[in-house]
Amino acid sequence: xxxxxxxxxxxxxxxxxxxxxxxxxxxxxxxxxxxxxxxxxxxxxxxxxxxxxxxxxxxxxxxxxxxxxxxxxxxxxxxxxxxxxxxxxxxxxxxxxxxxxxxxxxxxxxxxxxxxxxxxxxxxxxxxxxxxxxxxxxxxxxxxxxxxxxxxxxxxxxxxxxxxxxxxxxxxxxxxxxxxxxxxxxxxxxxxxxxxxxxxxxxxxxxxxxxxxxxxxxxxxxxxxxxxxxxxxxxxxxxxxxxxxxxxxxxxxxxxxxxxxxxxxxxxxxxxxxxxxxxxxxxxxxxxxxx
Length: 291
Hints:
Elements lengths: L2 H12 L1 H15 L4 H6 L5 E8 L3 E2 L5 H9 L4 E4 L6 E2 L3 E9 H31 L6 E3 L9 H10 L13 E3 L1 H7 L2 H11 L6 E5 L2 H9 L4 E5 L3 H11 L5 E4 L7 H6 L4 E3 L2 H4 L6 E7 L2
Parallel strand pairs: 6-11, 7-8, 8-9, 9-10, 10-11
Antiparallel strand pairs: 1-5, 1-12, 2-4, 3-5
Helix pairs in contact: 1-6, 2-4, 2-5, 4-5, 5-6
């Protein structure tokens, strides 16, 4: 694992919100206890289980398995067999758990739900990244995340080779068309932001026409966002920018057309679907009783 990936995993794994999320998920699923496992299994039964990927994918969030199972039963032994960002295939083992069989089954659904979703985000991101390989375009996420999962979903995007955009409204300025409409036009809003925004924050402005683009650049925007443009329209506006500031495109980006937006000259391509619409990756838990 690269130093950068290791650092990202450490941040996500140790962040207080991560343990709170996992604890809440377990409380929701387990409630007062796993009555089925308690009633169905002989007392003291021990088992070994392996979680495997079932199809080609990029895995993410594997560090959540030890955390979740520690909260279920600290006596369980949990081994992470792959790195976040690694490629899985058919029946690739990624997690191994050993100990009380009932505890393994109690934590199974929460662990699989989280790993399947985050690996789905990483896998979809990797497909977009591969689709623009050889161009300067970076694949970027958005704030269109599931409530409470933003840190983990953005981690999964990074594991898929994507780039994280703003984590929240407090760490970056993006002037949208709604701000422009309410604030008196592109030039007025960019100038106002320049005068009142916290120091050090880059000012990015959404532009939908040549006039808005010219106004944003003249007012001192540090970057522009071209939203809901065709690749041809985006290319025209990007030529007009002529390299003065970075250009991001968004809206209606799919695996079928992302290469065209990259070819148009975009520096960044932001895609909400990376987090809000990524299909879960199938993972399976194989368990056997210890003899």
